[in-house]
Write a structure and sequence with these properties.
Order of helices and strands of chain B: HHHHHHEHEHEHHHEEEH
Distance between the termini of chain A: 51 Å
Strand order of the largest sheet of chain B: 3-2-4-6-5
Distance between the termini of chain B: 69 Å
Low-confidence stretches of chain B: none
Shape of chain A: globular
Mean pLDDT of chain B: 90
Structural class of chain B: alpha/beta
Largest interface: A-B, 88 and 94 residues
Number of helices of chain A: 16
Helix content of chain B: 40-55%
Order of helices and strands of chain A: HHHHHEHHHHHHHHHHH
Helix content of chain A: over 70%
Radius of gyration of chain A: 22 Å
Radius of gyration of chain B: 28 Å
Structural class of chain A: mainly alpha
Shape of chain B: elongated
Number of helices of chain B: 12
Oligomer: heterodimer
């Protein structure tokens, strides 16, 4: 297979298919979230969620023909992509509208910083035994049809099923990508996936910025038709009379994103911080959990707690957010044992605190409701792991 | 308390962590938007309190035997997000816009001084190729698997983590995990291979017992004794590494014996 075909297949499976899958859940969100970034983010969340839903029962039932799994999972993604796209076909044009703030200097700062991080990620390798284990397993799974996690990553010899890791599907996702694209799992993880993680992290931060600085005035748009913006412009002019700093919303959001990026770069205060994991083990489940899932949950909780969630689906205005919250539990589980424990804990805790703090008990109740499918899986795995450790039934 | 120790280890010199805690308090006092206040401030406090609770430590760390990983609970704190947001909020409250710009500039300098840039991490090495594994591993693996579908090889410890990341056709006789375990339950030849002067007899015997067709040693390693005395013959030097083949293996007889005889 030529390199061009491999790259095109990689774009198909890592950009187009998640993009198609993300169309429908994004449609269920407020119009201000109808962006390409949100479509991709939701697409990955749903794709990973469905991957874990399919992966776990197969491993649990000890159905050791992984080749069949690797054939059916992509078919599932294709079907999901088609269904999602057909339901949200009218919104595609809206999703693809990208507005570039050419005049905002902080926009260039953000782009430059993320570009620099991606450049460093691609040009720096990692001397990390955990990564050797991680990618070794992915490489074995990619060429072996016998089953998951039955081999020693370093020697290739057969071992007992590795309970601690075997039920979480992220490594097998890289194996599947190798089978689908012909690009080795190590390259898939180290380059395209690492880029996706960086983009997802900073997109969530950007969206968080938008909601954190929502009350700031938007930049003056010289349009007579847009009354609201003209009023905001007047308001801005009044504020300019004092000497205080009144940034417009766009500037504040990009400044915020740039500052988070700067802090991330310098947060290597110990090897334990989530930021260190973001840069060193970008493609690992732990990094995805700490740097994409956690901020995304925060974003969803702020959205759910905010007023006026007026969306197309008026009967269930928050349906899209709850669906994504439910899927995030599956994705947490997919990322590994840390995500398996901390994911539901954080989502449940944040929903509880948000519900109490904002006096909206529905947030907690609905979040718990949408967590149930993933929780059944997590409890099942938890029981297996605890009994394997001899803590229960031991 | 173990949790306080974990917190201080997590925070390093604790400058940024302390600033984050101050920002959490600031947002708790000054933030007017309830949804934001709850998500960024109250939730952070709740996570910190939960982290410090002895029962949480007992449940999540001791009972689950995860004491080493308990610090990961601190990943639930949105440190960068809260610090950046609070800094901008404080800057917006200053009486003069130049004071705001100055504050942001000073804070960025403080973050840089109080923190540590991630690219100073010893984990990073310069990527030599698209796989991000050393070129020498690729060269050796390609040479070993040239016309041989699957081979068994004993690599030096420094190349051990990368081999299986590049090729599943090279089976190693021991893994990097043994080094992480401190070689306590490792075989003698593994303990020998990490030495600068391994005993050739122990090395070759152990490698052969593990069906190793090849032994790879760095050119700086000087074995005590001659590997050829134990039927491991020098095959080739690649990027400063010597490759030896087991003269008793079927692969040698099939493919390399005739070459050696011609030589």
């Amino acid at each position: 297979m030529s390199v061009i075909i491999k790259v095109l297949l990689c774009i198909l499976w890592m950009v187009i298919i998640p993009g198609c899958i993300g169309c429908l859940p994004t449609k269920l969100m407020h119009k201000k979230y109808h962006t390409l970034g949100m479509v991709m983010l939701n697409g990955y969340v749903c794709m990973f969620g469905f991957f874990q839903m399919l992966y776990f029962p197969i491993v649990l039932l000890k159905w050791n023909d992984s080749a069949i799994f690797y054939k059916w999972a992509p078919i599932l993604f294709l079907v999901l992509g088609c269904i999602s796209l057909s339901f949200a076909f009218r919104n595609v044009k809206e999703y693809l509208q990208i507005r570039v703030p050419y005049k905002n200097i902080f926009f260039y700062v953000v782009i430059g910083m993320i570009g620099y991080m991606i450049y460093k990620r691609v040009t720096l390798g990692v001397n990390d035994p955990d990564d050797a284990y991680y990618m070794g397993i992915a490489m074995i799974d990619a060429v072996n049809d016998g089953g998951f996690y039955w081999h020693n990553a370093f020697t290739g010899s057969g071992v007992m099923f590795q309970y601690r890791y075997g039920y979480m599907g992220l490594v097998s996702f890289y194996s599947m990508m190798q089978r689908l694209t012909g690009i080795k799992a190590i390259i898939i993880a180290h380059i395209p996936m690492a880029i996706m993680v960086f983009l997802a992290h900073y997109y969530v931060i950007f969206e968080l910025g938008k909601i954190l600085f929502d009350k700031l005035p938007v930049k003056v748009v010289k349009s007579k038709e847009d009354k609201e913006e003209t009023e905001v412009a007047k308001d801005t002019e009044e504020k300019k009379k004092d000497n205080k700093w009144h940034p417009d919303k766009e500037t504040a959001v990009y400044l915020f994103t740039a500052m988070v990026a700067f802090l991330d770069l310098f947060y290597n205060v110990s090897v334990y911080t989530s930021q260190t994991f973001l840069f060193v083990r970008t493609w690992h489940g732990k990094s995805i959990f700490a740097n994409v899932i956690v901020p995304y949950v925060l974003l969803l909780m702020i959205i759910l707690a905010s007023e006026n969630q007026d969306v197309e689906l008026k009967k269930f205005p928050n349906l899209g957010y709850y669906i994504i919250t439910g899927f995030l539990v599956f994705v947490s589980l997919m990322t590994g044992s840390t995500g398996m424990i901390l994911g539901p804990l954080f989502i449940g805790l944040s929903a509880l605190v948000t519900a109490i703090g904002n006096k909206k008990p529905g947030i907690f109740a609905y979040t718990l409701l949408y967590m149930i499918p993933a929780m059944i899986m997590i409890i099942r795995i938890g029981l297996i792991l605890l009994s394997a450790k001899g803590i229960i039934f031991g | 308390m173990p949790t306080i120790k974990l917190l201080t280890e997590y925070g390093g010199n604790c400058t940024l962590l302390l600033y984050y805690i101050l920002c959490v308090i600031y947002l708790f006092v000054r933030e007017k938007n309830k949804a934001i206040k709850v998500a960024l401030s109250v939730l952070s406090i709740t996570v910190l309190v939960l982290f410090a609770m002895p029962f949480a430590y007992e449940m999540l760390a001791v009972k689950l035997s995860e004491t080493d990983g308990y610090y990961r609970m601190l990943w639930l704190l949105p440190t960068s997000i809260v610090s950046a947001y609070a800094t901008i909020k404080i800057a917006m409250e200053l009486p003069h816009k130049y004071a705001s710009y100055a504050l942001i500039g000073i804070m960025l300098i403080c973050f840089a001084i109080g923190g540590n840039i991630v690219y100073h991490s010893p984990f990073f090495v310069k990527a030599e190729n698209v796989y991000q594994v050393p070129d020498v591993v690729i060269d050796i693996c390609d040479y070993l698997t040239d016309d041989n579908p699957v081979v068994v090889a004993t690599f030096p410890i420094e190349l051990c983590p990368y081999v299986r990341q590049y090729s599943t056709n090279v089976i190693q006789t021991y893994g990097y995990d043994e080094l992480r375990r401190g070689l306590t339950d490792s075989q003698d030849y593994v303990k020998e291979i990490i030495k600068g002067d391994p005993n050739a007899e122990i090395l070759t015997y152990g490698a052969r017992m593990n069906c190793s067709q090849f032994i790879i040693l760095h050119s700086s390693v000087k074995p005590i004794g001659n590997l050829e005395d134990y039927d491991y013959y020098f095959l080739k030097e690649i990027d400063g590494y010597y490759i030896y083949i087991d003269g008793q293996s079927p692969l040698y007889k099939e493919k390399y014996e005739s070459v050696f005889k011609e030589d």
